[in-house]
Specification:
The structure holds two protein chains of two kinds. Chain A is mainly α. Chain A is built from 20 helices and two strands. Chain A is about 55% helix and about 0% strand. The longest helix of chain A has about 30 residues. A two-stranded antiparallel ribbon of chain B has the order 1-2. About 5% of the residues of chain B have low confidence. The chains are: A mainly alpha, B mainly alpha.
């Protein structure tokens, strides 16, 4: 019993202020305003950290723009809907035009000011919409108008520039951004204060306001409601008006919808593809290269060097091998490129017997009688060396070291080194063929071929190879004595060569 | 007296610190590289006379037969001693075999290259021994990628630096001319006529960018590289944001700010920040100003010359008409003289926003005070 009384009393205590249509409109405003402000302001300040976070969260800047335009379209549809509810109020219900500003509002402002400064004991008595609410409504009308016009210009800049100077587009951008900022700040300051902070006015969500609140804020409206002034007219009256209004507004709404359709699809502002900024061929060789890659000499001899097969001795261990006859030529061919002279790699100089025995930084090169202690042999046996002896050569080297690593052949006069008996056939034919033949053989580098006595004597481009009886006039001797030749005889061999030539360079 | 000593000590300590700083700062940039080279040189120096004994045919008095490659091209195997010895490597007395590592014995292994290009491509890898960082950078560059993709024409070390005649590298006029022009003749010709190139060659101006200033040196990037187009405004900003440099030429440094403030630029900046690996169809500097043929906006042939702007806009906005180009403010900040409409709209909101919001705030504050006063009175009367 008691419970029911409370409910009845409660219901009587509530005054209906907003229809479901009005409440839907408010929700449309809430959704579109928040979405547009959010997606718009992050575009206005794209460099701000929050904006970048938000743009990432939305997917991309392009998505952000699409979302903004979707909600812009929704706002335009909300406008069409608002015109419908407003039109219905005016033309069908012929309700009082409570949102229009009037002189009583000016008086209410003045009373409010006086009240706030203590000149009045009471705030102004106001109707359905207070002057504070009317300011907000008309600000939204103005804002929506500005945003629609400038938004159209930004959405359709090419169409705009067809009728207006181009400057209108950046001006529209400035206005769109300025108006947005104004609207957001106004909502935050004015709207939030009045209906959320001052007191939380829930009527736009529930549709009802308590009689106590009504008496305080909308006393005139409460009085009018109770006097029956706001009662809707009888159905039979509105029915006839509705029959005229609905088709008339349908025409207007149709026109507006077509307008919105054009607004949204008016133009393709820019191509979607990415244009290359430049159309050039990237690789176009210069007609006359300034820096030739490899100098080609004009009139190069048609004769080409054919790389001769290795002429290094491949004879097995014969016991008669010596430094001068076998090992030195072998080292010269395979190791000489690096291990030669005082600056040879790793301190190893293989151009003479003494230095080869002494070895380099890794230890003694040759330990006569003990190949496994000889670093040269160790390195070669391990394999993979930059200059690598063949297996046969390696066997020769091992046999030679085991045999005590003799410097000269047992039958070549031994340590006394007498060269008086030397002949081409006996000594120098083989020596020169081994040491020099790879270039001055069949290939006859520089015109010199030392593979036969006659050709060696004849010499090459630089002059006679051997002048019997005159070593200093013999090109082969002078080149060797000067040093630095790619194929070098040992000092002893050069001395022998001079002795042999001076002795008339006997062939046999 | 005492404070005087303290000051003297302080100065001395300061000077010492500064000296230490200078020592660190002024040590040669290539120090590390040079040390590396010198160490190797001491270790494995080899008498180049041995090689030049044959290969410097002129001095040796022999005519070294050149090698005919299978393609029929002649590989000249002569090296002039003077050429090599006056090169940077020759001056360091570096050994031939340091680069020609495939030659360890005599006679040499036969050359396997099919043609001259093949020979160059098979030999440049030797540079990596000492110049590893530059070599790696080149491998990751557009040239390295092309080479890897099988394009033998792609530049290798020796194409730009030479082989036996390597000189100290510079990125200025004659060096650039010798290097990039060789393969990119069409681009080079366009560049030569551009506002940058013309000045470079006519006035020998060291301020203007050459190829490498925009594309990099060893890590050369082309427009096909992801992000090159997107980030290219920052290349331009390197110089065009430099107040001191631009003052010399009377060029405004607002160009970058005004670009970013506009729709195109702000989109590009967002992409740079958030989606660096994605392309956007919004234009960057080079899309309007041209790339290698970039010209002053006062040049009637320029894409940005006022009479040519519509054509430039139409590349992306095919339906644009006469008024459209003026929607771009030509890098000017909106002023009363240039763009009155934009200026006054900005001014309007600059006044309206503080005015309206200020008034609202004021009203809200007054209202709060009134409410508090009313409540205090209520409490007091109760």
């Amino acid at each position: 019993m008691l419970e029911q009384d409370v409910r009845v009393a409660h219901q009587e205590d509530r005054i209906r202020r907003f229809s479901v249509f009005d409440r839907v409109e408010h929700w449309l405003q809430v959704i579109t305003f928040v979405a547009l402000a959010f997606t718009g302001l992050i575009q206005k300040w794209p460099e701000a950290g929050f904006s970048q976070w938000a743009i990432s969260a939305l997917g991309s800047i392009e998505t952000t723009r699409v979302i903004h335009r979707v909600f812009a379209t929704m706002l335009l549809l909300a406008v069409v809907y608002h015109l419908f509810t407003a039109g219905k109020r005016i033309f069908v219900n012929r309700a009082p035009r409570t949102m229009l500003p009037s002189m009583s509002d000016a008086r209410a402002v003045w009373t409010s000011v006086r009240f706030h400064f203590g000149r009045n004991q009471e705030p102004p008595v106001q109707g359905r919409f207070t002057w504070e609410e009317k300011i907000e409504y008309w600000a939204i009308v103005w804002g929506t108008l500005v945003m629609t016009v400038t938004g159209f210009m930004l959405w359709n800049p090419i169409a705009t520039a067809r009728f207006l100077p181009g400057q209108f587009i950046p001006a529209a951008k400035a206005a769109h951004g300025g108006e947005a900022l104004l609207a957001v700040l106004a909502i935050l300051v004015w709207h939030f204060y009045h209906v959320h902070l001052r007191h939380f006015n829930t009527s736009i969500f529930t549709g009802y306001m308590s009689r106590r609140e009504m008496a305080k804020e909308h006393a005139l409206e409460l009085a009018a409601i109770e006097a029956g002034k706001f009662d809707p007219p009888p159905m039979e009256v509105t029915e006839a008006r509705r029959r005229r209004f609905v088709p008339a507004y349908s025409v207007v709404a149709g026109a507006l919808l077509v307008g919105i359709y054009f607004f949204v699809t008016f133009e393709d502002t820019a191509i979607q593809t990415i244009q290359p900024p430049e159309d050039v061929l990237v690789f176009v060789p210069a007609p006359t290269p300034t820096v030739p890659l490899v100098t080609t000499t004009a009139g190069t001899s048609a004769e080409t060097t054919t790389t001769t097969e290795s002429t290094t001795s491949t004879t097995g261990a014969t016991g008669s091998d010596s430094w001068t006859t076998t090992i030195e030529p072998m080292f010269s061919a395979t190791c000489g490129a690096c291990h030669r002279g005082s600056s040879g790699f790793a301190g190893l100089d293989l151009s003479s017997y003494e230095t080869a025995v002494a070895g380099g930084t890794s230890g003694p090169g040759i330990v006569p009688g003990d190949p496994d202690s000889s670093v040269i042999y160790q390195r070669q046996e391990a394999g993979g060396h930059a200059g690598q002896l063949t297996n046969a050569e390696l066997a020769t080297l091992r046999a030679w070291i085991e045999a005590g690593a003799p410097e000269t052949p047992a039958d070549a006069g031994g340590e006394d080194g007498s060269a008086s008996g030397s002949t081409w056939d006996g000594t120098f034919g083989a020596l020169l063929a081994d040491d020099c033949g790879s270039c001055h053989g069949a290939g006859a580098l520089g015109g010199l071929n030392v593979t036969s006595y006659a050709l060696a004597v004849e010499g090459g481009n630089s002059g006679p190879g051997i002048v019997p009886g005159d070593a200093n006039a013999s090109e082969i001797y002078t080149k060797q004595a000067a040093g630095g030749h790619p194929g070098m005889l040992s000092d002893d061999q050069i001395a022998e060569l001079a002795t042999w030539i001076d002795a008339g360079a006997p062939e046999k | 007296m005492k404070s005087g000593w303290r000051l003297a000590w302080l100065c001395l300590a300061g000077a010492a610190l500064f000296g230490a700083f200078l020592t660190v700062e002024t040590s040669p940039v290539r120090a590390q590289e040079t040390t590396q080279e010198t160490n190797q040189e001491q270790d494995i120096r080899f008498d180049n006379g041995y090689c030049l004994g044959c290969h410097d045919g002129e001095t040796a008095g022999i005519s070294l037969s050149n090698i005919e490659l299978p393609s029929g091209e002649i590989l000249d195997i002569n090296v002039h001693r003077d050429t090599y010895e006056s090169s940077v490597h020759g001056q360091l007395e570096m050994s031939c075999v340091l680069c020609h590592t495939d030659i360890s014995e005599f006679p040499h292994d036969p050359i396997e290259a099919e043609d001259l290009r093949d020979f160059a491509v098979s030999n440049y890898t030797a540079c990596a021994t000492c110049h590893d960082s530059q070599y790696s950078a080149t491998h990751d560059s557009v040239h390295g990628a092309a080479l890897l993709a099988g394009n033998n024409e792609a530049a290798v070390c020796t194409d730009c630096h030479g082989a036996h005649d390597v000189q100290e590298a510079t990125t200025r006029a004659p060096a650039i001319q010798r290097t990039c022009e060789n393969c990119h003749f069409e681009i080079y010709t366009a560049y030569q006529d551009s506002v940058h190139g013309a000045d470079l060659f006519l006035a020998g101006n060291p301020d203007v960018p050459t190829c490498t200033d925009c594309h990099g040196v060893h890590d050369v990037e082309g427009p096909a590289v992801a992000g090159f187009h997107l980030f290219s405004p920052q290349i331009c900003a390197d110089c065009h944001d430099d107040q001191e440099l631009m003052d010399k030429y009377g060029i405004s440094t607002d160009v970058f700010d005004t670009y970013v403030a506009d729709f195109h630029g702000s989109t590009v900046v967002i992409f740079e920040e958030l989606f660096p690996d994605q392309e956007t169809n919004k234009p960057v500097c080079i899309d309007c100003h041209g790339v290698h043929n970039i010209a002053s906006a006062d040049n009637p042939n320029s894409q940005t010359f006022r009479a040519n702007l519509l054509g430039t806009c139409q590349r992306c906005h095919p339906e644009a008409t006469t008024n459209f180009p003026t929607s771009w403010l030509s890098h000017y900040q909106p002023t009363r003289e240039n763009t009155p409409l934009v200026y006054y709209v900005n001014l309007f909101y600059r006044i309206l926003i503080p005015l309206v919001i200020g008034a609202m705030l004021l009203w809200v504050i007054v209202d709060i005070f009134r409410k508090l006063a009313a409540r205090r009175k209520e409490v007091a009367s109760a």
